Structure formats: C-alpha cells, structure tokens
Amino acid sequence: MGVFSYFKNLVSRKPVEPEGQRDLTQGIPEDDPVQPTGGSVPQRIKIQKMLNSKALAYKNAIYRSRWNGGTQGFEEYEYNMAEIVQAEDTEGFVSRSFDKHIEICMKEGFKIGGDDPRIVRHIKRRLFEIFVNTGLTTKQMVRKIIRDTIKYSNVYIVLVRDETRTTGKIYNYHGKPMEPIAGIFFADPPSMTVKRNKWGKPVRYRQYIYNIGEHRNFKPEDIIHLDWRRKEGHAYGTPFVVPALEDIRSLRRIEEMVEMLISSHIFPLFQYIVGTDDYPSDDLEIQKVKDEIQEMPTEGSVVTSHRHKIAVVGAEGKALEVQPYLQYFEKRSLATLGLSEIALGRGDSSNRNTAESIDKAMLDRCSEINDIIADSITYHLFIHFVLDGGFPLSYETLPEFGFGTLDREAVRANENHQQGLFQGNTITEEEARKRMGLKPMPKAGVSGERALERIDIPKMKAEAEAKAALAASTASQNSTTSKNQPTNQHGTKATKTKLVKNVFEHDAGNEIKVIRNIFTEMPEDGFNEYFTKAMTGTILERVGSIATSYMLERFKEAGVDVPQDCTIIPDVLKNRLQSHTLRLLQYCRDNQKHHIAAVIDQISDELPNITEDINTYCATFETE
Fold first, then answer.
1. Of 304, 394, 510, 460, nearest to 41 (Cα)?
2. Chain centroid to CA 392: how far?
3. Pick from 519, 512, 516: which is nearest to 545 by CA?
4. What CA–CA distances, in Å, run from 407 to 142, 149, 343, 360, 515?
5. Closest CA relative to residue 609, chosen from 580, 566, 586, 567
6. How far apart are CA 609 and CA 579, in angstroms?
7. Where does 233-299 have alpha helices with state H?
8. Which of 132, 237, 248, 564 is the most exposed place for a label (fewest CB within 10 A)?
C-alpha cells in the first residue's frame, strides 16, 4: 500500500462518535452508559478546533547555544541546557538536589480515580497496553516525567498512534480524526525545539541530535509538552537550577583559591638568623652555616650558640580569612537548590522538629510539581483515552491522576481540626469530609447531620435501651430466685457464712448469661455499634461491681481493714477482658452475630482466672 493510499484510507474511515460529541440539546438517552449521580446530569462537551490566543508571544528571545539546531523558525532555549546536564554529572549539590526532589515527589505514590469505574478500568487497560507495546510501566512513565520536570522544567512525551495495537478506536479531537495512542516515548528536552505562530501556538516540534547531525519533525498532536515555571509568552519553562549555577561557580573558584593557599603554605619556610646586633656575623660565618645546612641529613639536627636563631616563616595570620565567603556562597547555592543541611546528612545540632521545618520548603515545591504533573496527565493524556474508548467527555466523569499528600503532618492537623468542629456540632459531616478532601458518605440522609444528631442522640438511645433490657432481665431472674430461696429460709446462724470459691463466678456468670441472652435475642434493626458499646461497658461495670463486693466480703471475714488502694479490680478486669470486648465490638461492626455468643462464653471462661487474681491480692493483706 502506497503512502497516498494509506492516508486516504485513514481519512475516509469513520471515527467513533462517542456520546460526548453530540449536541447538548439532544438530551440523554435511556441507555446512556453514565448514569446521573446525585440528581445531576453530566454535561457532554464537544471537542472542536482549539482557539488561538489574542496575546502575542515572544520569539527567539535569547541565543546562547547552537546545539539544539535552532533554525528555520524553531526557537532555542533561553538558557544553555548543556550546562545543566554537565552540572548534574559533576556537581554533587545539583545531583543531590535532583535526587532528593524526585524521592519526595514519589514518596506517597500516585493513584487514578474517578466517579465512573468503567472509564477508570479502560484507562488502566490502555496504560497496560502501552506497557505491552513499549515496555514502559506506568510508574516508570511518572518517574521520567518528574525527573525531566525537575531537571529541565520541560517534558516532551512522544505519542505513537496505531489502532491495530490497542483496544481504542479512532476519535475526533479538535476537529481532526485521531488514531488511538499505542505507545509513549520520551524525548531528551535539550534536543527539542518548537516552532510557533505569532500567537504562541505550537505548529511543529523538532528534535535535533547534535553529535550525528540529524533531526526529526513532529506534529503538535503527537507531542505532549509539559512545562514548569514558564514565563508568559515564552516557549519553554525555566529550570529552577539556573540561578544556582553562577553561585556554584563562585563557590568552586573560591575553593580553588583555598587549595592554592594550602599548597603554598603546607610546607613551612625556615629562616636561619646568624649573629645579633651586639655580635654581628661576617660572610665567612654565613657561608659556613649554609654549607652545614645543605649537607645535613633530612632527619638531622643543628646545635648552635646563642648567636644563631631558626624561625619558621608562614602566612603568619596575614592571609585573607576565606571561611565566611565559603559559607556564604554555599548557603546561597543550597537555598536556590532547595537543599538543607539535613538533606545533605549534616545533622549538627538539628533535631527532628528542626529538620521538618527546614524541609517544609522542599515539600511545598514538590507538592507544586506534583500538582502540575497530575493536571497535565489528566487533561493532556487521559482525555485521549476517554475519547478512544467511546465514553462521553464530561468534567464530572473524567478520571483524575493524583499524587498522595506529601505533608502528612499538615493533613493530620487538618483532619483533627475538622473532627473537632464536627464533634462540637459546628459543621455537618458532609462539610467535614469536604474540608478533609473526602467524598460524602454513600448512605443518604445522614451526611447533613451534625454529631449531635448522628452520634450523640443514637448513642444515648442505645444506652437507655441496653439498660432497660438489662433491668428487665435482672428483675425477672430476681423474682424467680426469691420464690425458690426466701431470705429467711435458713434462719439465723451464730457464725458467718463461709464464702466459697465459686461465689464470684456464680454471680458474675449469671450476669453474663443475662447479657448474652440480650445480644442473641436483639432484632437486626436494634443491633448497632452504640448498643454494643453500651452492653460491653455494662459487662465490665456489673462484673467489676460483683468482684468488688466479693473482695470486700473477704476483707470483712478476715477482719482486715479495707486497703485504700482498691483499683486492682478494674485493672484485673481490663487485662483479662480487654481483648474479648474488642473482638465483641468488631463482630458487631461487621454484623457477625453468630460469633458474639462465642465471645461472651470466652468472657465467662475468664471468671476463674479473675477469681484467682482476687484471692491472691486479698491473701497478701490477710497474711499481714
């Protein structure tokens, strides 16, 4: 097939007309793939020809390097990008700054989310297809974008389109039929130039490889140009490392001078003085001393009279003090590169709080970079995937690419603040979740309630119901016990009744059985977390009360004064029953009623151990 036939077939093929390409007045069909959410209808957006800017753009502002092949109207960079490449390879500060920024940007990972799960799955499938075609994973793609953004403030993504290598279909974009993206590649930013019209709109991109003298042109629709710190009207972003290069050069020149100073004075100069003012020397004596020094071995020594003096001549404090200059230019360079002493491994007297405060500026810069990259990927790459999948284009259903929040301390502080406002009945749950960056709860009718209506009132109702149910069961049991065993059944004894070992276990076991029956007989609509918390607290309260009574009876029987510190009973109960009560709450949250009875039985099994702990505690005082 010839070239002409290929393009003829490509243009003649009918592109996919997704629902988003229709006129907005047509309405939404009943079988529309995107269902309205929250009563609102997603608006369809039609991609037409892109508008030109009415503001003029700069052209070829500065020429400093010719290695980009900036000819035939292609604009060169305003700065020498080769210096940045060389600085990364030779300057430790620059290399460390790049690596540190990349590490922070990737620290919290990234995610792809959206309201329509089918569109999200389609985008993930398309990214996997790109990996199959090119071997480039999504994480590698994101890391390359971050690296080029930090190094050059410019990223060039080359799009390869092929309908036969993907599941996407041909679509219309800015009035042109487009084949789906089958591959993503990256061009080295220093080798790329752009040709723009007078309004600043790119009309052609060119890559020029200087060492082989070859170039290649690209259409604007086949290049995604991401820029950072681009001045309005200019073609390229300005790398943030540019202001630091001159400071680093000054620092290195001063270091070279310090090296020369050290080389000049590292070996001392000795001055041999012969004679004094009272006893001057003559030429014969000076020549004799000179001959002796020249013939003296390296490790030898000299014995002289009082008329001879040997002095060491050095800088003698007359050389310029260079340390303040070194520190000044080093701090300037580090500040421009966004580095701190902590990032370089120089702890000195800094602690963790100091390190977090110093690195806050770097976190803010990396957050800005992540926001720019996420926005570019969403609106310059994902929009193509949505269209080639035949989905309607709408801002409400367009999936978003995003990074995790880098400043976790600020996030936690904001979450705690919003939680406090919600619990203080100042804002509703929907407002609190919105301020936290979370979506509203899916359950309808509760997101607009404050904590008073959502938590406090249901909790009080559940506690009241639990106490009422417990009181009713206890009254029924006491009535049966009173009929079977009246109070005066055994008459009056001359001695006290001896407490047996299982008195506590018997009474506490009866209370736990009552609570177990309440749990098992509770209907589904009254079974919630607040009721469970109330009943769990009732278990600890009732069992603790019986244990305290049992302990006091032991002290009274033994004739021992009650110790002032009687907190051993609550501590014993917490240690023995905490794990069981926590599991009880978890089963209630998961609505697993069939496990609740087993957990309550395990609580009953702990009663002998609690009895033994109480007896051991009481025995220590009875012995005394």
1. 394
2. 32
3. 512
4. 20, 20, 16, 8, 47
5. 580
6. 15
7. 242-265, 283-295
8. 564
135-148 pLDDT, tens digit per residue, is 999 999 999 999 99
Spatial contact of 223 and 186, defined as CB atoms under 8 Å apart: no
Instruction: Encode 492-541 in three state secondary structure.
Output: CCCCCCCCCCCHHHHHHHHHHHHHHHHHHHCCHHHCCHHHHHHHHHHHHH
- Pairing status of strand 154-161 against strand 223-227: antiparallel
pLDDT at 606: 77
d(Cα 76, Cα 90) in Å, to the nearest integer? 24
Strand 192-196 to strand 176-178: parallel, antiparallel, or no bridges (unpaired)?
unpaired
CA–CA–CA angle 161, 141, 125 (5° rounding) = 60
What's the rounded Cα separation, in Å, for the pair 392 and 412? 37
Count the Cβ atoms, other than its own, within 10 Å of residue 125: 15
Sign of CA dihedral 514, 519, 520, 523: positive
Find the helix or strand (DSSP H, E) in which 99 lies.
helix 92-105
pLDDT-above-90 percentage for the chain: 24
Any residues with CB less than 8 A from the CB of 429 and at least 6 apart, and which?
Answer: 422, 441, 446, 447, 448, 449, 450, 451, 454
CA distance 223 to 186: 10
Report the first-to-last Cα separation within the chain, whole angstroms.
108
H and E: helices and strands count for the chain = 20, 12
Its pTM stands at: 0.60
Q: How far apart are CA 586 and CA 576, in angstroms?
A: 18
CA distances from 144 to 105, 524, 620 (A): 12, 54, 71
- pLDDT tens for 478-509 read 555 544 545 544 444 444 444 444 676 777 77
Placement of tokens 């009082």 in the chain: 306
Which residues on adjacent β-strands are paired with residue 181?
161
Reading the block at residue 334, the tokens are 């580090």
pLDDT tens figures, 223-238: 999 999 998 888 899 9
